[in-house]
Structure prediction request, 163 residues.
Amino acid sequence: MTAETVDLAPPVLPLPSTREMTAYFDALTEAVDALDPGPGAPGGWEARELLRVTTWVRRAWEHPLSPAVFAHPDARVARSVRDAMATALGLRLEVSGTGLRPARPTAQVRAVAAVGAVWAVTAQAVAQSPRPPRERVVSDAWTVAKEIIAPVPHDYARARRSW
Prediction:
């Protein structure tokens, strides 16, 4: 009698070349920049960032190279693009503001966390088979990013002895 084994680990995808990754991220950046209404957008920072995040996630979800790119999120090109996105978001948050001026965390810390969250949500989605619906991924990415950028204050009492 032989036991049947099932390999549940996802297949290891090859690292795309530097050229492929650069072209991939250039295409995503161009799509986002083409639709960016600029700092004077109606609806303020939230409308602008919603448009940027949803465009980026939609394009990444649709691109056939995404599973391989997000299987290697720490590759040099990916890491530099992610860092540049966080730097740009931090600058936009400082310049246009969110209406919130908390002392901590800073706009740059929120930007790094928000971009990391969008990448994580996108990476999880493009690695799944079958993929979740694109618009659910877009909504999840934006919901998490928005909560990191400008958390909604909650008025509830803290339980005694809770941390």
Remarks:
- The chain has six helices and no strands.
- The CA atoms of residues 37 and 84 lie 20 Å apart.
- The mean pLDDT is 84.
- The helical segments are 18-35, 44-62, 66-70, 76-96, 107-127, 134-149.
